[in-house]
Amino acid sequence: MSRLRIATIWLGGCSGCHMSLLDLDEWLIELAARADLVYSPIADTKRFPPEVDLTLIEGAIANDEHLELAQTARRHSKIIVSFGDCAVTGNVTALRNPLGPAQNVLQQVYVEHGDPGGVIPHEPGIVPVLLDKVVPVHQVIPVDYYLPGCPPSAPRIRALLEALIEGREPAADIRFG
Amino acid sequence: MAAKTLTIDGHLVSARPGETLLAAIRDAGITIPTLCHLDGLSEVGACRLCLVEIEGQRRLQPACMTMVSEGMVVHTNTPRLQSYRRQIIELLFAERNHVCAVCVASGNCELQRLAGMVGMDHVRYEYLSPNYPVDISHPRFGIDHNRCVLCTRCVRACDEIEGVHTWDVAGRGVNAHVITDLNQPWGTSTTCTSCGKCQLACPTGAIFPRGVTVGERPHASERIALIVEARKQRW
């Protein structure tokens, strides 16, 4: 059996889901025996590579960079997993949505509640541009599997990965929060 | 009075006349999802989660509002019902801001549990993300309208058990929301006795004791039925 090519990406989230992934401890060594981690915030790779078997997406779609990376990941991946509550629902990342479009949010955070009252960051090409509404991953690209949880526990991540690596359908496992 | 005999999911079941279909289904050991139903309170048939198929009737019927009748043939878990139940839960999640990760009721929430029960691993609808307030003007309790599912269990507990009717519903459709007294801050209510039965009845983290944080609000809705039972005893 050829080695699986696994990627993980970190969009609008706190990295807690990646922390939970690392919480798999010694099972990560077993995983490394069967798969290569070809792109990840915990791997030194600059570009999302082609022909990835499985990509875990942590985080919601909150800015233009997230949108582009999610679309790239979809084009280059056989299986996409929405990994954690932010990817599945928007969760904490989407708490800004009731405040209105991005400009309103920036105005409130940086100017009205800034201490001292600051300026809205504007660095085209450097600071990603916020989208007006934070959305779950499945609203911008097709998603194959969902693993809710904030974060999903290490045993739940392992159960999903083991099923997908072995080509089985993962058992339903729904727990938000 | 003669018992009624009906068929639920292929099993012959006998039920008392005047009993609801929901009670008969539960007596038969079958679990169907409910949300606006709470033992001890009147039924309103608002959430539609307990809809069942009854042979010979084209419309689905809420089990909590349907009385048993002789010869009824009932199906409680068909693919059509499963699909509707999941849609209902998805719409509830999409309508307000139900963010389990930062909710006082996480781990003790009926909506969160129902999501798992009906197989909702994601919401297919666009989130409305409304801007609802949190009222903590009451010294002991708070209400976060973002978590409210409009089941009206608080309204009924306050009216039927406490006999006060501080709570009611204002507005229609997507603008409906629960209010205290004449749509004023809860802390200024002159009718509220601060008994906390609304908080016991609440299935989500909408009504909570002040001072609790994420996951700390216990679920104690069954205490409403205990109060009702206790009051039946007369010395």
What is the gist of this entry?
Helices cover 32% and strands 21% of the residues of chain A.
Q: Helices and strands of chain A: which structural class? A: alpha/beta
**Rg of chain B from C-alpha positions?**
19 Å
Question: What is the CATH homologous superfamily assignment of chain A?
Answer: NADH:ubiquinone oxidoreductase-like, 20kDa subunit
- Shape assignment of chain B: globular
Mean pLDDT of chain A: 95
The assigned CATH architecture of chain A is 3-Layer(aba) Sandwich
Shape of chain A: elongated
The biggest sheet of chain B, with number of strands, parallel, antiparallel or mixed sense and barrel status, is: 5 strands, mixed
Give an account of the 3D structure:
The complex is a heterodimer of chains A (177) and B (235). Chain A is of the alpha/beta class. Chain A has one domain: Rossmann fold, CATH 3.40.50.700. Chain A is 32% helix and 21% strand. Chain A has helices spanning 16-22, 27-34, 64-76, 85-89, 102-112, 154-165; strands at residues 4-10, 35-39, 52-58, 61-63, 77-83, 130-135, 145-147. At the A-B interface, helix 4 of A face helix 3 of B.
What is the secondary structure topology, with strand pairs?
The complex is a heterodimer of chains A (177) and B (235).
Chain A: E1 4-10, H1 16-22, H2 27-34, E2 35-39, E3 52-58, E4 61-63, H3 64-76, E5 77-83, H4 85-89, H5 102-112, E6 130-135, E7 145-147, H6 154-165
Parallel strand pairs in A: 1-2, 1-3, 3-5, 5-7
Antiparallel strand pairs in A: 4-6
Chain B: E1 4-8, E2 11-15, H1 21-27, E3 51-54, E4 61-62, E5 73-75, H2 79-95, H3 110-117, E6 134-135, E7 141-144, H4 153-161, E8 167-170, E9 177-180, H5 197-201, E10 207-209, H6 222-232
Parallel strand pairs in B: 1-5
Antiparallel strand pairs in B: 1-2, 3-4, 3-5, 6-7, 7-10, 8-9
